[in-house]
Amino acid sequence: MHGPWTATLTTIAIIAASALFVSIEFATIAARRTRLEERATTSRAARAAVRNASEVSVLLAGCQLGITACTLALGAITEPAVEHALEPLFTALGLPHWLGGTVAFALALLGVTFLHLVVGEMAPKSWAIAHPERSAVLLAFPMRGFMWLFRPVLTLLNNSANKLVEAFGVKPVDEVAIEQNPDELRQLVRHSAESGDLDAWSSDQLAGALELTRLRVGELTGEEPIVSVPRTATVADVRAASRRSGHLRILVGDPGSPQGLVHVRDTLTADAGQPVAALVRECPELDPGTSVLDALSRMRRTSTQLALVRGSGRTIGVVTISDMLESLFPPREESTTGET
């Protein structure tokens, strides 16, 4: 009985170790680092989990080393023990010794592989993904101990893998990224608004801010015709165009390729018959694919309120800072009832 019990207990220990390595591997990748950092202020285990996330490449090397060692150990210890236990049964059934040994070996291999995959890998993986922060914190200390014990070996393995990856032009990553992409944040805002945790106006404001990197200036150019005056126009022509359109900035020159713009404010002290050529300001040009964020940054650097959107050698339209801000951050509707 000593032999079978020893093999059984050893098998349980090996599968448990494999489950630990698989769980900590998936938990560290799936856990939100911000949540771990929040718990780290009051929990030593959470601080250990944060350290694991900070050197994820070494941790993954440790997990892979541990899982590989467990697989080899099962093949060296458990599989022969199961085969040794099954072979006499098939021999007693009248099978030839060579056939009984072959069947026992096949069944032992299948049984050990199934047990390792289900109990030692797939079940722990599912648990870690379902409870990433909890499992990352719970298993942080055992994994830190394993990494400390085998640090030289893990460093060698990790450096070798990094060199191989760099040879293909990929930069290795040493820690889990903590940022969320705009799509994830946009989904979070939408979910918060639908659940009532965020009011509609605040939701619109946040959604608008997230659109800064997605929305392109080409999407803001409407069907409204470009307001312009000829290059030979006078101050009176600019004032008249402003009154007709309601715009304070009037383009000068061919609408398809304007020379610049004139602000009506600059014409207030000028004679009505004066040519506007001396009052023309440069107007920045933007590609239709330019993001609103990049457009705002460029217009701020050049201290301009209006920019031309040009594509295929012609002017598609114009955009202003106020147009971009209003499209992203719609004004809050004020109540017209109540106070007078």
UniProtKB/TrEMBL annotation:
It is found in: Cell membrane. It comes from the Bacteria. It is a multi-pass membrane protein. Residues 1-202 form the CNNM transmembrane domain. GO terms for cellular component: plasma membrane. Its main location: membrane. Residues 279-334 form the CBS domain. The chain crosses the membrane at residues 12-31, 52-77, 97-119. It holds the Pfam family CNNM. Keywords: CBS domain, Cell membrane, Membrane, Repeat, Transmembrane, Transmembrane helix. PANTHER family: HLYC_CORC FAMILY TRANSPORTER, UPF0053 PROTEIN YRKA. This is HlyC/CorC family transporter.
